[in-house]
Amino acid sequence: MLSDLHSTVILFIILCFLHMPISLGQDDERYRSCGEPFQCGSMNIIYPFWGGRKPEYCGHPSFEIKCESSIPKIAIESTRYEVIDINTPNRIVTLARDDLLSSICLDNPENASFDLNTFSYVSSDLNITLYFGCTVRPGLQLPPSSPNRFNCNSSIFGIYTLINVPFNLSLVTCQEEIIARVNQTSAVALASPTASVEVLRRAIAGGFSVNWTAGIDSKCQQCRTSGGRCGSNPDSGDFACHCLNGTHSNYCNDGPNHLPGNLSSTNPHNLLLLESLEDKL
Ligand SMILES: *[C@@H]1O[C@H](CO)[C@@H](O)[C@H](O)[C@H]1NC(C)=O
Ligand SMILES: *[C@@H]1O[C@H](CO)[C@@H](O)[C@H](O)[C@H]1NC(C)=O
Ligand SMILES: *[C@@H]1O[C@H](CO)[C@@H](O)[C@H](O)[C@H]1NC(C)=O
Ligand SMILES: *[C@@H]1O[C@H](CO)[C@@H](O)[C@H](O)[C@H]1NC(C)=O
Ligand SMILES: *[C@@H]1O[C@H](CO)[C@@H](O)[C@H](O)[C@H]1NC(C)=O
Ligand SMILES: *[C@@H]1O[C@H](CO)[C@@H](O)[C@H](O)[C@H]1NC(C)=O
Ligand SMILES: *[C@@H]1O[C@H](CO)[C@@H](O)[C@H](O)[C@H]1NC(C)=O
Ligand SMILES: *[C@@H]1O[C@H](CO)[C@@H](O)[C@H](O)[C@H]1NC(C)=O
Fold it and tell me: What is its EC number (predicted)?
């Protein structure tokens, strides 16, 4: 008797939930929060990037920017970068490696990598190879002018090489090497016989560029034209267009709303569930 009353109360509560138009308020909230400006330093961050006051559903899941002391930072495949510039129309982001910015001599250097389904290297930049933990082989000597050598501490140094800037590597032994990228202007400066560790630091700070594949944001223009705000579906991560009347999968007038989850009372499946519950009462 008591437990019957108990389950009736629980059923009643469930019914109240199913009748609530849960998704409408939420969708409008997405439209509004994706319209919030997200400024970091002097950079105005827009789709496909998100972060700060813009939740993940306002961007592409792989494009989170964290604003640290007014400096925009991004982590890609576990390497952290300072974001130097974003060129949205050309889909290019210019990045500088955080680890090399804080110290030109790395103890445990790692090669950065990019998911080639998302990013490609911009072809105007050049590879440089950085060697760390180098010492001169016993009995040998470096040429008096070795601009591509940089000191790390009193006993070890580093070397950089790039195309047209060779170095006789059989003079030294080095612990580790990585490939990094610099822009063309920096590469020219690094090739100069008067280059110095300062030139190398500036080259790293100048960054290199990657472009994101067209597929990432190809649906955004049509969404904006229809009055929507570009973003992603919080469940699947796929593109989504957040409109005043809800979240759509492509643009605002592309048919019925794409409702989040399947909790809405307009979902036929929930209506069936509702009827069967009401039968029981
Ligand atoms: C951007 O990436 C595409 C491949 O997705 C490539 O074909 C194109 O050349 C790249 N653009 C630049 C400026 O490198
Ligand atoms: C430059 O480095 C990248 C990343 O290591 C590599 O994929 C690419 O093949 C290199 N390009 C050249 C011309 O060596
Ligand atoms: C120089 O740095 C290396 C690695 O960072 C370290 O093993 C070595 O002890 C340092 N030497 C001096 C003299 O500080
Ligand atoms: C590089 O250095 C080694 C050792 O001193 C020397 O035998 C060799 O000829 C040098 N190679 C070039 C290209 O200078
Ligand atoms: C970085 O990549 C280069 C070229 O692929 C390789 O020779 C080097 O060992 C790699 N460095 C590290 C630290 O994995
Ligand atoms: C290339 O890097 C240098 C730093 O060495 C920077 O001053 C310059 O603005 C960069 N050029 C481009 C086109 O990004
Ligand atoms: C949502 O609004 C757009 C106009 O902004 C309209 O074309 C579309 O039919 C509406 N969709 C629904 C499901 O109400
Ligand atoms: C929600 O319902 C639609 C059709 O009613 C279905 O295609 C979709 O897979 C459902 N999604 C979830 C997360 O159950």
Answer: 2.7.11.1
* pLDDT 10s digits, 76-132: 999 999 999 999 999 999 999 999 999 999 999 999 999 999 999 999 999 999 999
Verify whether ligand 5 is closer than 6 Å to residue 107 (CB atom). Answer: no
Helix, coil or strand: residue 113: coil
Q: At which residue do the structure tokens 């050049």 appear?
A: 126
Sign of CA dihedral 87, 92, 96, 99: positive
Q: Where are the domains of the chain?
A: 22-80+218-255, 92-212
Report phi then psi at 27, rounded to 5: -65, -40
This prediction has a pTM of: 0.80
How close is the Cα of 128 to the center of ligand 2, in Å?
A: 9
Cβ burial of 141 (10 Å; 0-12, 13-18, 19+) is exposed
121 in helix, strand or coil? strand
